[in-house]
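FIELD: query
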Amino acid sequence: MRLFIGIPLAAEVMEVLAALTARLKSPSDGLRWSAPEVWHITLQFLGQTSAEQYACVQAGLWRIRHAPFEVQLEPPAFFDRAGVFFAGVRLSPELIHLQEQVVAATKPCGFEPEDRPYHPHITLARDNGGRQGLRELKSRVSADVQFTDFRAKEFLLYQSFPGPGGSRYEVRERFALTRL
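FIELD: result
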């Protein structure tokens, strides 16, 4: 099974992102737009996971203790080389601490942290290869988009099911962020 760990978005944030993407989408833009039901903030991508690793990850994640915290989104931006349009997520000490706890909990299960710095974001669209769609989209995106902050109250263990139209995600486990 393919797994990852992430923070779900609050309904009001999803509404704002849905309105933004609806305004920017065009049938001929050559972009593959992410569906709202797959929007999340990744804490760690695990990838292919055995049943033994799953049990280890699950146990490790249950040991995490972290208080709920505010998440603030940043204006939309682009990963040009990867061909991705995204909403940024402000790095806060609380978010970094939770991400570090998740990575520490999965390490004994055989998962290594990524080499690159943690850059939380919400993927909104991917280019299908030509990059022309991203270039055109850039001209229509305003940097002054304002997002509603939200309180992260839980993080989830997701299973990913890749498909021709994009991946579908199922929640395998919910882990509440509670007062310490």
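FIELD: remark
The mean pLDDT is 91.
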